[in-house]
Amino acid sequence: MDEKYMSKLSPTVDFWAGIYLVIVAVLSVFGNGVVLVRAVGRFALLKSPELLTVNLALTDIGMALSMYPLSIYSCFNHAWIGGDRSCLYYGLMGMIFSITSIMTLAVMGMIRFMVAGSPPKTGVKFQRRTIGFVISGIWLYSGLWAVLPLMGWGSYGPEPFGISCSIDWTGYEMSLNHSTFIIAMSVLCTFVPCLVILFTYFGIAWKLHRAYQSIQSNDLQCRSVEKKITLMALMISSGFFVAWTPYVVVSYWSMFHSREKGHMSPVISMLPCFFAKSSTVYNPFIYFIFQRTSWQELLRLQRLMFCCFHRGNLPAEGRKLGEQMVKVSDSTNFENKTAETCLG
């Protein structure tokens, strides 16, 4: 077997790494499988943006099913299984699913930012067909970047610890071909989507803050809505960054120090890579926590923000009539919980 595919870790570390991956794989398949089964069961009731959640579950379970078994077998074998062909396959799958995940999160952030604060009846809306086209575009975009190394721009190769494969980061200093691919891929598939995620979720938080300042109410129900929706957005985005940032940092470190012998120990290079795989586990649990009320509260929040924004612009009689109409509407849909209190 080629030396580059031999594990640089001790057999004990390989064994426990394999056990860890088994746990991650089982939790990922179970959690995302439940999300997909429930989505299929209520497919006709799914709102358009929820299709992005389903797409994210597909990427997570796809990664767990197509990649983790090979990693687990290689850990217990103390060497990479399959040589160049399986390494190429593993790197290809990793590129497709990881880019699809980050682009899906970026689109989710943009849609939530555009929808937040718009009136529920006449505001920004997205049809299923539109979201379907967007999801198709995400997969095509990811597939294009994944295929480019097969066409000669960039390449896939083993990780420094030997039992995983990814982009050949160490080729950055060796050729213009590798360096240009890594720079372009990093900017268009990592940095830009990450900036979109950060700015959109900060924008959502700012919109919520401004909206509830204008309400001028100390009602706990209103504060609960703001806290829950903001917390969900924060958990989704921050979870992704927590899982992937160590791997990105280590990858770039190895990229700029590839010619230095022993620049990084195998264990240090392995830990961020395996930690990043946990990103396929936590999303289902976040969605389970917020699934019951998140979309209902988003609609309620839109009603509140719209009504409170226009309240000061209405004459006294019109405002009174508007309040009564909103109360009647919200009592039908949301059992008079929040709108009556905030419209007062």
TrEMBL record:
Membrane topology: Multi-pass membrane protein
Transmembrane segments: 15-39, 51-68, 88-111, 131-151, 181-208, 229-255, 267-290
InterPro entries: GPCR_opsins, GPCR_Rhodpsn, GPCR_Rhodpsn_7TM, Retinal_BS
Single GO cellular component term: membrane
Subcellular location: Membrane
Gene Ontology terms, MF aspect: G protein-coupled receptor activity; photoreceptor activity
SUPFAM superfamilies xrefs: Family A G protein-coupled receptor-like
Gene Ontology biological process terms, A to Z: phototransduction
Record keywords: Chromophore, G-protein coupled receptor, Membrane, Photoreceptor protein, Receptor, Retinal protein, Sensory transduction, Transducer, Transmembrane, Transmembrane helix
Keyword Transmembrane: yes
Major place of residence: membrane
Every G-protein coupled receptors family 1 profile domain range: 31-287
Protein origin, superkingdom: Eukaryota
Record flagged with keyword Transmembrane helix: yes
Classification via PROSITE patterns: G_PROTEIN_RECEP_F1_2, OPSIN
Name this polypeptide is given: Opsin 8, group member a
Gene name per UniProt: opn8a
